[in-house]
């Protein structure tokens, strides 16, 4: 699944391509919104919020209200920016969104979902999200404290589930979870209450995403050579880059929202058994002595 950095780059590409342009071709290839006609309207902005992509389109010449297109890439979604008339290099039946303005065309393929909403509805649709690690409104102090508070509200939940829950912090997926837990020496199965220094973990998460915000290839090791970019993600059965122990994988996660059968956090997780010992089996975590 594309993570926050990927979606932010996609939003920036859509904004650069379409912002200020009048749409002369619009296709929303989903049954519920297929009849929505946005031709003749101007694209005002495209922005990301965590893993959500929002394309803001202004009112029409008859005074009808603005519309916000709400996209989620989910597992397979992609955003393509093309020259108008350029041959598509993907199957046409995978296209869910087509927006053309002058000589530029944006196509969204295999999207997880696509909705046409009012601006107020779009704001409500993402209101549940925690602070965006790549958001323009990020504040090192208050945003970090907010995330630590949100994660800490469920102390017995695994840190791996907490990091994927977009209600805690927006933008982390399985790649960054694996890399973040490795660098901090944390087993993703440990409960939140056993994890030392949550603030440092959040600070590192923000630093990782910012470092990769403009990179086509994600790097967390500091080594940009092909095949050496990541610490443990995708390295099941291979030696740990740090100690040589075989990296293991397992499934981790339940439902983010117990009342929503679609809201699952069940994902693959990675771990080096030596570099990420399970604190939950080693007794209570050390804490500062109370005076």
Strand and helix map with partners:
Layout: H1 4-18, E1 25-28, E2 43-49, E3 52-57, E4 67-72, E5 78-83, E6 95-101, E7 104-109, E8 113-117, H2 119-125, H3 142-152, H4 159-164, H5 174-183, H6 198-212, E9 248-252, E10 267-271
Antiparallel strand pairs: 1-6, 2-3, 3-4, 4-8, 5-7, 6-7, 9-10
Task: Describe the protein in words.
This protein is an alpha+beta fold. It folds into two domains: 4-125, MutM-like, N-terminal (N-terminal domain of MutM-like DNA repair proteins); 142-280, Orthogonal Bundle (Helicase, Ruva Protein, domain 3), CATH 1.10.8. 22% of the residues lie in helices and 20% in strands. The chain is built from six helices and ten strands; from the N terminus they run αββββββββαααααββ. The strands form three sheets. It has a four-stranded antiparallel β-sheet, covered by helices on one side. A four-stranded antiparallel β-sheet has the order 2-3-4-8. The protein has a two-stranded antiparallel sheet with strand order 9-10. Helix 3 (142-152) crosses helix 6 (198-212). The model is unreliable at 283-291 (pLDDT under 50).
- What percent of residues adopt helix (DSSP H or I)? 10-25%
Largest sheet: 4 strands, antiparallel
Order of helices and strands: HEEEEEEEEHHHHHEE
Give the termini separation: 47 Å
Rg for CA atoms = 21 Å
Q: How confident is the prediction overall: mean pLDDT?
A: 92
Strand order of the largest sheet: 1-6-7-5
- Number of alpha- plus pi-helical segments: 6
Q: Per DSSP, what share of the residues sits in E-state strands of 2 or more residues?
A: 15-25%
CATH architecture of the largest domain: Orthogonal Bundle
CATH class of the largest domain: Mainly Alpha
The beta-strand count equals: 10
Structural class estimated from helices and strands: alpha+beta
Reported by name, the CATH topology of the largest domain is Helicase, Ruva Protein, domain 3
Uncertain runs: 283-291
- When the domains are counted, the total is 2
Name the overall outline: elongated
């Amino acid at each position: 699944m594309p993570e926050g950095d990927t979606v932010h780059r996609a939003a920036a590409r859509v904004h650069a391509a379409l912002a200020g342009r009048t749409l002369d071709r619009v296709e929303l290839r989903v049954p519920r919104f297929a009849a929505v006609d946005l031709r003749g309207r101007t694209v005002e902005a495209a922005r990301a919020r965590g893993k959500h992509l929002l394309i803001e389109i202004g009112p029409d010449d008859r005074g009808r209200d603005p519309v916000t297109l709400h996209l989620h890439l989910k597992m397979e979604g992609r955003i393509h920016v093309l020259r108008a008339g350029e041959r598509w290099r993907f199957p046409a039946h995978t296209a869910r969104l087509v927006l053309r303005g002058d000589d530029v065309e944006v196509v969204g393929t295999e999207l997880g979902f696509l909705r046409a909403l009012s601006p107020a509805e779009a704001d409500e649709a993402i209101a549940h999200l925690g602070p965006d690690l790549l958001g323009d409104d990020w504040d090192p102090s208050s945003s970090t404290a907010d995330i630590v508070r949100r994660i800490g509200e469920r102390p017995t939940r695994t840190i791996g589930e907490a990091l994927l829950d977009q209600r805690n912090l927006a933008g982390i997926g399985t790649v960054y979870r694996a890399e973040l837990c490795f660098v901090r020496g944390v087993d993703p199965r440990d409960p939140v209450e056993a994890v030392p220094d949550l603030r440092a973990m959040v600070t590192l998460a923000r630093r990782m995403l910012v470092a990769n915000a403009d990179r086509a290839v994600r790097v967390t090791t500091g080594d940009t050579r092909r095949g050496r970019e990541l610490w443990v993600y995708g390295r099941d059965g291979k030696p740990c880059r740090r100690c040589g122990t075989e990296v293991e994988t397992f499934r981790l996660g339940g439902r983010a929202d117990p009342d929503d059968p679609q809201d699952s956090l069940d994902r693959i997780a990675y771990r080096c058994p030596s570099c990420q010992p399970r604190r939950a089996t080693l007794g209570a975590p050390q804490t500062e002595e109370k005076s």
